[in-house]
């Protein structure tokens, strides 16, 4: 019977779609990258999504975050995302966690409940903890490296963390994961050197904070505000979603029926 995922099924097949419908994916961070990850996963027929983010939609998110509109400013991102995703697939199960993931909050999550884990946060300590927990639970995990201050969406690559280059965040992750005995990690990273943001006090969040009231972690607390755009983080997110779908279905274009 014709349904919203019929065109996807023409590529992956019925068995794969049934697998996706039974799969549960946790996405840590639903901003510029993670927002496009959950969008693509919902449109691909994933049955359950766990959304982990404590942030609210801000005016400055509109340039790159798919859930950010004038209407959603001030809403928790997980709430805005849930409303959007349910419009796409009402049968989807959404579990929301208004939480900033760090080692001290790790105990609140049971990684063994997930079929796949996506790391789309930008805090090194949180990223490392996500990887450690996923590896300990034997759950596939994919991590996004730096996507800020870049303008070339064609420079993204999928690789093991130990085969990455150029990206400063990947360099830190390589060092820290090696120290912890992690032998491999699938990542999406860019080979494009990061640009230095223009120093303009008139449009800097450091000088003109527009975070909604009640925001727990404001941009004014950051040492540096990265520049971004609509077409780089989105590509990283879509690449990640594609890897998740292909891995969950064990997709092999040469062997499909």
List the helices and strands and how they pair.
Blueprint: H1 6-12, H2 14-21, E1 24-28, H3 34-43, E2 48-52, H4 77-88, E3 93-97, E4 116-119, H5 124-137, E5 141-144, E6 156-160, H6 168-179, E7 186-190, H7 233-249
Helix pairs in contact: 1-2, 3-4, 3-7
What is the H/E order? HHEHEHEEHEEHEH
Q: How would the global form be characterised? A: globular
Strand residue percentage = 5-15%
Name of the CATH superfamily: NAD(P)-binding Rossmann-like Domain
- Spans with pLDDT under 50 lasting ≥5 residues? none
Average pLDDT, all residues? 93
Question: Quick recap of the structure?
Answer:
The protein has 257 residues and is α/β, with parallel strands linked by helices. It has helices at residues 6-12, 14-21, 34-43, 77-88, 124-137, 168-179, 233-249; strands at residues 24-28, 48-52, 93-97, 116-119, 141-144, 156-160, 186-190.
Description:
The chain is of the alpha/beta class and 257 residues long. It has a single domain (12-249), classed as Rossmann fold (3-Layer(aba) Sandwich). It has helices at 6-12, 14-21, 34-43, 77-88, 124-137, 168-179, 233-249; strands at 24-28, 48-52, 93-97, 116-119, 141-144, 156-160, 186-190. The protein has a 7-stranded mixed β-sheet with strand order 3-2-1-4-5-7-6, sandwiched between helices. Helix 1 (6-12) crosses helix 2 (14-21), helix 3 (34-43) runs parallel beside helix 4 (77-88) and helix 3 (34-43) crosses helix 7. The radius of gyration is 18 Å and the shape is globular. 40% of the residues are buried.
């Amino acid at each position: 019977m014709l349904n919203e995922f019929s065109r996807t099924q023409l590529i992956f097949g019925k068995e794969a779609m049934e697998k996706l419908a039974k799969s549960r994916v946790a996405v840590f961070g639903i901003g510029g990258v993670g927002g496009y990850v959950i969008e693509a996963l919902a449109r691909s027929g994933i049955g359950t999504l766990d959304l982990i983010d404590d942030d609210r939609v801000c005016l400055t998110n509109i340039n790159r975050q798919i859930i950010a509109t004038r209407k959603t400013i001030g809403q928790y991102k997980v709430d805005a995302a849930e409303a959007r995703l349910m419009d796409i697939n009402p049968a989807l199960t959404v579990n929301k966690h208004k939480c900033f993931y760090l080692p001290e909050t790790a105990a609140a999550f049971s990684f063994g409940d997930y079929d796949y884990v996506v790391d789309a946060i930008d805090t090194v300590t949180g990223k490392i903890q996500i990887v450690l927990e996923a590896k300990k639970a034997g759950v596939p995990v994919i991590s996004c490296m730096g996507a800020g201050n870049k303008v070339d969406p064609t420079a993204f690559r999928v690789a093991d963390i130990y085969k990455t280059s150029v990206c400063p965040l990947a360099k830190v992750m390589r060092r820290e994961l090696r120290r912890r005995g992690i032998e491999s990690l699938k990542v999406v990273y860019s080979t494009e050197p990061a640009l230095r943001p223009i120093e303009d006090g008139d449009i800097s969040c450091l000088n003109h904070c527009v975070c909604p009231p009640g925001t727990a972690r404001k941009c004014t607390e950051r040492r540096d505000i990265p520049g971004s755009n609509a077409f780089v983080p989105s590509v990283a997110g879509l690449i990640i979603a594609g890897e998740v779908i292909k891995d969950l279905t064990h997709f092999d274009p040469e062997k499909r029926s």
